[in-house]
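Justification of resources, computational component.

The compute hours requested in this renewal are based largely on the per-chain cost of generating structure records like the one below. Each record pairs the submitted sequence with a full structure-token output. That output is archived, and it is also reused by downstream analysis tasks.
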Amino acid sequence: MDEASCSPENFRFSPSVTEPDSTPESLDLEGDRLREECGVFGIFGHPDAAAITALGLHALQHRGQEAAGIVTFDGTRFYSERRLGLVGDHFSSASTINHLPGAVAIGHVRYSTTGETILRNVQPLFAELSSEDHNAGGFAVAHNGNLTNGLTLRSQLVREGAIYQSTSDTEVILHLVARSRKTRLVQRFIEAIGTIEGAYALVAISNKKLIGARDPLGIRPLVIGQLDGHYILASETCALDIIGARFIRDVENGEVVVISEKGIESLKPFPARPMRPCIFEYIYFARPDSIVQGKSVYAVRKAMGMELARESAVDADVIVPVPDSGVPAALGFSQQSGIPFELGIIRNHYVGRTFIQPTQTVRELGVRLKHSVNRSVVEGKRIVLLDDSIVRGTTSVKIVQMMREAGAREVHFRISSPPISYPDYYGIDTPEREKLLAATHSLEEMRAYIGSDSLAFLSVDGIYRAMGEPGRDPARPQFTDHCFTGDYPTPLTDVMGEARSQLSLLAEAS
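The structure output for this chain reads:
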């Protein structure tokens, strides 16, 4: 079989009305959501670099809640503090910040898309580098995104004698930098990222520089800011806002920025390519108050709701968002349709990601720990539930059931993005394709499974219109939208390698 025929879009699954498994031994309250990626932050030359980095990571906490880390440099030594858990649990005390002296710092918040949630995988990752002149010194790197050839490179490096300390694909970058024969660190860094494929926004520090880089398609975001004359790199503008920094510009796709005592230098070492930022930054990942590539995330989400109302009008009494991510789109749907917006679901913000239930009965009540119905809004009403996406569908089932138990006359489900039919390989933790509800069910089968009176998704062209485009241009897509279309914009080297291995095993078995 040739490579094209074993690409992900050519793996098909027959539609099925088999109910997905929704009764695990522990109910992960976020298990039916798209998992956040990671967030990165860096600052150069500020006397309170560690404290400012911690504040920036607070603002980026929505991008990863499993672990956080900060590495600093004081002109002589590097210092590292990496912890499992939330930023506020570890980096709010003066004692921790005092262990991170120096005017240069980078930080990272993590949700693991590759590698387990263990301390040795927590970023930033650090290594001592050697060179012919023995002046390379230390190097630390933090990464948002995912390498689609990380496993392939890792296997190759291990065969050549590399020893890994983590299971994170980010460590591949460290090894590539270390093995480069270039004389200058920036050159070694550029050579290393010229080898990797996939999506990345990187921040790194050496004993002289803060370096930022964005993948050639600009899939993952990275912005430049300035505070009191000191340059900052961050995943989102909301991290600049929290510290009172001024937004300068987005790092361009394929650009490497080098910040030192001389100022900021822009390098573009790779052939120019059209930008294709990830559409999910606007749908789900970025904070509503962030500006991504010049577009207000909040305004775009409202526009998605308005487009959805135009495409899938419904006669109803009230619009109810599934909090929190469904709120802006629900406001847009309400404004376009004229149907009143109400908070028919109240979210409990003090529930952790996972709650262990001792019995099946208690497990089935788990979703109510996070969402409770505002009965006065729902009872006797025809409601439109508005959410940003459906992944497995298990949480949607429970929410519809809660609406009916609260006395809703009709429950219409509207989703402000297209059906997610393909897995992601660029830093979003989506399930395997056979576990994506839209990949295995028709629209009517999804509606029947969820239990709503009607179900509609925003079209692919609709989401492009909400972004200010006339529609999707198949010859030159403006965004990375593979979860909806199966159009992966980069080689999937690791996936292809795994597919070829599976096909080889099948051939041997037959």
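Residues 1-30, 353-358 have pLDDT under 50 and may be disordered. Residues 4-30+293-485 form a domain with the Rossmann fold fold (CATH 3.40.50.2020).
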